[in-house]
Structure formats: structure tokens, C-alpha cells
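Dear support,

We are seeing what looks like truncated structure output for some complexes. This example has two components. We would appreciate it if you could run it in full and send us the complete C-alpha cell output so we can diff it against ours.
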Amino acid sequence: MGGGRLDSEIKELMEYIEASSFVEFELEREGLKIKLVKRAAVGNGQAGAAVPAVPAMPATSPPQALDAPAARPAAVESPDIHLVKSPIVGTFYRSSGPGSRPFVEIAERVKKGQVLCIVEAMKLMNEIESDCDGEILEALVANGQPVEYGEPLFKIRKGAPA
Amino acid sequence: MSPDRSPEEPLAPAALQSRLRTAVFGHRVFYYPTIGSTNDRALDLAAAGEPEGAVVLAEEQTGGRGRRERTWHSPARLGIYVSLILRPLVPATRAPLFTLTAAVATAEALRESLGLQASIKWPNDVVVARRKIAGILGETRGSDPLIREMVLGVGINVNHRREDFSREVLERATSVLIETGAIADRASLLAAILEGFERRYARLVRGQPADLLREWVSLSALPRGRTVVVAGPSGRSEGSMDGVDEEGALLLRLPDGRILRVPFGEIVESSWT
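Here is the complete output from our reference environment:
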């Protein structure tokens, strides 16, 4: 793996971690160990710089903050509000097919790991699971609409199932 | 390759493994005479910790699926219905490259093992004489930015006769038997596909898709310059085929010369001749 390639892959990885709900992330592969820690507290809206640990990395620009689309100002995280985001660019579907019921309804209680929707790109169906227990407050995208990488899909109020 | 004695010969794990030349893929086989969907079973096995390279193989699918609950007609012992478990640990945006690779490996095996003029219609339909002979459906679960588990389902029409298809399906589908007039050995074909996929897989995981994308372009049913209409995220666009980029997105040259990148969608019209 060339240095340039490694740099760009790590930069890409940092961007993904930044958009994810991870606060800390470690990867060990092919003799390389990377540890990424978000400095900013989750939910204060500030772009957290991801910090690679070992080996020392050449300077890379900090990951961009992924702005929520302007039309959706309500999509902001807080300690009890969680946003489920799309890990890929694709088409958002709330059910498994045209004749099926949605995976989840608004106000429904969901568990961590429960399938909330599908994002499809090129016949790759990505079943998006909830990453926390809680209650679905809002679907932020309409069925059948394209979504961007990192775009919030659902707003969930965190809390253990009743 | 030696044909089956009859189309009813099973595609048993032993038959597959005696023909396999892979290091890992296809050595662990979950075999079912009949199953709802190989992809569903593979997703469950992956969630339970089944390692990369394991395959789910079925003689018949009662609920074979394409995208968005379209059915994939899967009659007993005629086709190949298989799902492969992968754990690539690459960013999820690269996931479409794995379905493109499955299409390349399938088209290559149909060409080299059976002499068929198989090609690929973006993103990943495998066609012969403009009719679909194989379909690919990838699925992942989770919302991680890295792909921890993924299944790639491949359905291939092998020893179907014309009468095994409905008239409606026959208009857009074909099989190995229809194209070659001979019963094909499904185990040999599947072994060739798994070998071709495994050979390309390591490079993809390392983030080196260039060779794969060149192969994809060389196998494209619609060569560069061919006029197509594509339905993508921003609606329908007409233009000429210009290639695919490093994430598998279609590049379309618009009438004004600009290049439109279509990250996902399908080709809805094309001039085939």
C-alpha cells in the first residue's frame, strides 16, 4: 500500500467515523493499528477532530462537518435525541417492497438492532438498523427519495423499551 | 466440462467442492433442497458469526427475491441459487463494487466455461442476447460506516427449458440450456464463479478497484458512446455511455458534453443495435 493511498484511505475512514455515532474506534489490520477518538462531545454540533494514534500520521485536513440539509433544521442530536444516518448514498425505502408495511411507524418503540428501513444502491440493499433503543419520533426522508451519505433518516428518542 | 447426466442431478456440496480451486470461498457450504431465500439464510448465518467465504446453496427457492420484492423464479434443480457471506470491513460507500464484481465473475464464467457471449447491463444484470441470464442481489444489515457483514446472492438460469419460464418472463430471460442447447454442469459453473470472484476480492478490499472497473467496462453490454436513458436519483437523463467511476457509478455524457455521474439507478432504455 503506497503512502498516498494509505493517507487517502485513512482520511476516508476518518470521514466515516465522523459521520457515525462512534465516539471511539480502533482498527487493526495488516500490521497497521489505527485509533480514532472524537474530541467533540456527541451532539454539540461541533465537528470533532478524529485523532489517529499509531503510527504517527502525516497531517491531514480534519474531516468536514456533515451538514444536515438546510431543509431539515430539526435534525439535531441531543443527549436524548438520536439520529439514525445513512451509511451510503442510495434510495431510501421504509418497507421491503411496494406492497409491504413500513418496517417502523412513527411513535413506535424500537430496539437496538431492529431494522428501520432500507437504503438501496445498485442492487445492494442495506438494511439500516436502529443503533439504540427508543421511540421513533420522525422519519426525516420520504419513501423512495434519494439520500446522501451521512444524511439523517430517523429521529429517535432514546430510552429503554417499556 | 462434463455435462450432468440429467438436469435433475443435485448440486450437492461434494460436487461443488470436488471442483473448487479457491482458497476460502465455497469451502463451507450450507445446502438446502428447498429454502425461502438463500440471502435471508445467509444474513442470519452471518449475524450468528459465520465466517467470510461460507455459502448458502439451495436447489430451490420458494421465495427467491430480486430487488424491492420482485421475485426471482427459482425452480428445483434447474438454476444456481447461491449466497456468499463477506466481511470486507471497507467503507459502506464501496459496497456497490462487490455487486459489480459478482457480475463480472459470473459473466466471465459463462464466457470461459460455456462459451456464451455474456455481458453486463449496468449496474449488474448479466445478459446474453439481450436477455437476462443471471441476477445479483447484495444485502447488508446495520448502520456502520464499515461493512462488517454482507451477503451476495447470485441467481443463474442454467438448465431451464423454454417451457420452464412463463411467456412473460421468457421475453426478457434466457438460460444456459436455451443458449447452448446442452445441459450444463452447475457445480463446475459455480466453482468457476467463486474462483473468479475470490481472485478479484482481495484487491477490492485493499481499495484497488482499477482492474475490476476496466474488466467491467470491457464486459459492458452497452459500449461507450451508446445512447441510453438512465433513471437515477435526479430523474431521467439521456446521454451516451462513458464508463463507470471508482465507486461503480455510471458516467453519462450529456448532449451538451457535460458528464453526469449517476450513483445508482437503472438503464430504462437503450438502443441495442
